[in-house]
C-alpha cells in the first residue's frame, strides 16, 4: 500500500510541476521585466491610459505615494511617500507643478492662494484625494 501511495504522490508532483511555467517572471511579470536579449533588468512602466493616468497596481493602506504613481508613473518603491524625495531633480523652493515631499506624505503643488499658502493635491489626505492649502514647511520639492 505504501508503494502505491508513493507512486501516486510522485505522479501528482510530476504532473503539477509540468503544468507550472519554468520561469515565474514570465508568468507573473512585475514592474521590472528582463529583456530577452539582455542580462540586465530594464525598468518597464505601464503607459498612461487615455485620461493620462498610470496603472499603479492595488492601492496600499498608506496610499499617498500610490496616488502620485497613478498621476506621474513610477515603480512600486514610490508607494512610500519619502522615496519621492529622490525622484526627478531637486528644486530650491515650492512652485506650481512641483512634487512636495514631507517625511510622511507626498503631493503635487497645483496653485497658490492670495495669502501665500501653497495649494496641494494629494491622495490619502483625510482618506481621500483632496486639493487644499497646506503648509510646506519642512518639505522638499522635486521636478518630476
Give an overview of the whole structure.
With 144 residues, this protein is α+β, with helices and mostly antiparallel strands. The chain contains three helices and eight strands, in the order H-H-E-E-H-E-E-E-E-E-E. It has helices spanning 2-19, 24-27, 64-72, and strands at residues 32-34, 41-43, 89-90, 99-101, 106-112, 118-122, 130-134, 140-143. The strands form two sheets. It has a six-stranded antiparallel β-sheet with strand order 3-8-4-5-6-7. Strands 1-2 form a two-stranded antiparallel ribbon.
Say how many strands there are: 8
The proportion of residues forming helix, as a percent range, comes to 10-25%
Widest sheet: strand order? 3-8-4-5-6-7
Instruction: Quote the average pLDDT.
Output: 77
Shape: elongated
- Rg computed from alpha carbons, rounded to a whole number of angstroms: 23 Å
Topology:
Elements: H1 2-19, H2 24-27, E1 32-34, E2 41-43, H3 64-72, E3 89-90, E4 99-101, E5 106-112, E6 118-122, E7 130-134, E8 140-143
Antiparallel strand pairs: 1-2, 3-8, 4-5, 4-8, 5-6, 6-7
Features:
single chain; six-stranded antiparallel beta sheet; 144 residues; alpha+beta
Outline:
With 144 residues, this protein is α+β, with helices and mostly antiparallel strands. 22% of the residues lie in helices and 22% in strands.
Amino acid at each position: 500500500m505504501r508503494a502505491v501511495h508513493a507512486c501516486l504522490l510522485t505522479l501528482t508532483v510530476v504532473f503539477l510541476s509540468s503544468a507550472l511555467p519554468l520561469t515565474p517572471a514570465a508568468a507573473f511579470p512585475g514592474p521590472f521585466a528582463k529583456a530577452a536579449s539582455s542580462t540586465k533588468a530594464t525598468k518597464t512602466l505601464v503607459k498612461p491610459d487615455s485620461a493620462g493616468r498610470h496603472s499603479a497596481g492595488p492601492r496600499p493602506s498608506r496610499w499617498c505615494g500610490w496616488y502620485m504613481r497613478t498621476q506621474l508613473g513610477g515603480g512600486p518603491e514610490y508607494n512610500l511617500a519619502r522615496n519621492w524625495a529622490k525622484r526627478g531633480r531637486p528644486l530650491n523652493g515650492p512652485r506650481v507643478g512641483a512634487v512636495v515631499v514631507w517625511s510622511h506624505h507626498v503631493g503635487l503643488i497645483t496653485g497658490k492662494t492670495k495669502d501665500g499658502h501653497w495649494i496641494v493635491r494629494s491622495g490619502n489626505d483625510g482618506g481621500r484625494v483632496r486639493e487644499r492649502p497646506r503648509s510646506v514647511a519642512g518639505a522638499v520639492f522635486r521636478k518630476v
